[in-house]
Design a protein that fits this description.
This protein is α/β, with parallel strands linked by helices and about 425 residues long. Helix content is about 45%, strand content about 10%. It starts with a strand and ends with a strand. The protein binds nicotinamide-adenine-dinucleotide. The site of nicotinamide-adenine-dinucleotide has 25 residues, from helix 1 and helix 5.
Length: about 425
């Protein structure tokens, strides 16, 4: 393909080197002429393993050249890949000036140009940027329609500086959002040789994935550092701790505990996070990340509470009281807290949880409920139907298999707040919702 790459920083220079090596005709564009001069002399504008040699070879073969002329570059290409910078503004927001400017230039040239060109954003942009800035800017400047007269795509970049060429050929995943099949096809063919999972997504999902990734990476670094710091303060080798931690690919380095849903609870997580918080405090250690976990969990319960209150239904049916399905352990269940708060607001509540069914409970758990939660014990019913017929709002609190059938059985006026996302798609009416999906 004839490909134009806008922005010859780390992402653009590496992409230009790799795509020209793959046999594409590449024209690199940057308004910084020292960068374009370097490329035209066969040199890399960034320090990155192998890129110098690749650029030298591509320039000598004639498959790569560079220019400062945005409009000329778009004239000669069928695919335009935008890798301009998106730096932080002073207030922390993303500065999209470079993206906007390059889209204006590209759009103006598209106005004159016959034939189809796909404009692909690789710069990291906040969710909504394609739909509210990129596409309107291109359409306004070109007088043409995205997805019809020209293509638009978002194709986030996951490379890491210092291993960028390796990462280009070995991406952890490929994520594509496109305005039309032709643009999607071009991006798929660009990635056809890579052994990586490919996801086609909406613009906003693809945009958000990049932020979830980088925030996760930052969170991992901060977590490792805080565990290391507290370990060191009590004379433990934090490296040895994290080596063993990382060997656990079932619960730790895995997709477990990462689905958006409801707050954590139970007899272990809150207690142990609190104990580590206390240990840090007693050592005069600043552990802002670990200290923020309990407040984050509380905010999540607050969001659930607010969502239920917003529905303004006196009768609330609760399906699932324990912190997860398959246990009768009610210690620190966030559902218990939610129910207590709803009671305080005067709601009429009925609760069904087959694992906490009082008529079947024996021994310690029965005693626990009657001693500690007598106000809740009174609200429990033996049949799920008693909850379903009672509630104007039904709250699903854990992922017991039986609860999914309820969603399809409700009448139009009933609302479901599913805190655990028992169904991927809404089965019932539009009144099926969660707090973080
Ligand atoms: N650096 C990374 O490791 C990395 C990895 C993945 C994604 N990203 C994202 O990719 C984007 C680019 O990152 P980078 O590190 O390569 O940035 P960079 O600052 O190194 O390079 C950006 C280049 O764009 C040029 N530019 C700006 N406006 C232009 C315009 N209108 N026309 C032509 N050129 C223009 C600048 O002169 C600069 O050379 C950012 O959004 C970044 O968040 C970066």
């Amino acid at each position: 393909m004839d490909i134009a790459i806008f922005g010859l920083g780390y992402v653009g220079a590496v992409s230009a080197a790799c795509l020209s090596k793959e046999g594409h005709n590449v024209i690199g564009v940057d308004f910084n002429d020292s960068k374009t001069d370097l490329i035209n002399k066969g040199k890399s504008p960034v320090v990155e393993k192998d890129v110098d040699e690749m650029i030298a070879e591509a320039v000598s073969k004639g498959t790569l050249r560079a220019t400062t002329d945005n409009r000329a570059a778009i004239r000669d290409s069928e695919l335009a890949i935008v890798c301009v910078g998106t730096p932080s503004a002073v207030n922390g927001n993303l500065n999209l000036d470079f993206v906007q400017r390059v889209c204006e230039d590209i759009g103006e040239e598209l106005r004159e140009k016959d034939g189809f060109t796909a404009i692909i954003i690789r710069s990291t942009v906040l969710p909504g940027t394609l739909r509210t800035l990129v596409i309107p800017t291109l359409e306004k400047a070109s007088g043409k329609k995205a997805g019809v007269d020209f293509g638009v795509g978002f194709f986030p970049e996951f490379l890491r500086e210092s291993t960028a060429v390796y990462d280009f050929y070995n991406p952890p995943k490929v994520v594509i959002a496109a305005s039309d099949d032709r643009t999607r096809g071009m991006l798929e063919s660009l990635n056809a040789d890579f052994d990586a999972p490919l996801s086609c997504a909406d613009y906003e999902v693809a945009e958000m994935v990049k932020y979830a990734d980088n925030t996760w990476h930052a969170l991992k670094v901060a977590f490792g550092n805080e565990i290391g710091s507290i370990s060191k303060a009590i004379d433990i080798d934090g490296g040895a701790v994290m080596d063993i931690f990382c060997q656990d690919t079932k619960l730790n380095i895995s997709s477990k505990y990462l689905r958006p849903g409801f707050a954590f609870g139970g007899s272990c997580l809150p207690k142990d996070v609190r104990a580590l918080n206390y240990k840090g405090r007693s050592l005069d250690l600043e552990l802002p990340l670990i200290n923020s976990i309990m407040p984050s969990n509380r905010s999540h319960i607050d969001r659930a509470m607010q969502m239920i209150l917003d529905l303004n239904e006196k009768n609330v049916g609760v399906l699932g009281l324990s912190f997860k399905a398959g246990t009768d352990d009610l210690r620190e269940s966030p559902m218990v807290e939610l129910v207590e708060r709803l009671l305080g607001k005067g709601h009429e509540i009925r609760i069904f949880d087959q694992n906490v069914n009082l008529s079947r409970l024996v021994g310690a758990n029965r005693a626990y409920i009657y001693e500690h939660l007598p106000h809740i014990a009174k609200l429990m019913v033996d049949e799920m139907d008693d909850v379903v017929t009672h509630g104007g709002t039904i709250v699903i609190g854990n992922s017991d298999d039986r609860f999914s059938e309820v969603v399809g059985r409700l009448n139009d006026s009933q609302r479901v707040i599913d805190l655990v996302r028992i169904e991927n798609e809404a089965k019932a009416n539009g009144g099926y919702n969660g707090i973080c999906w």
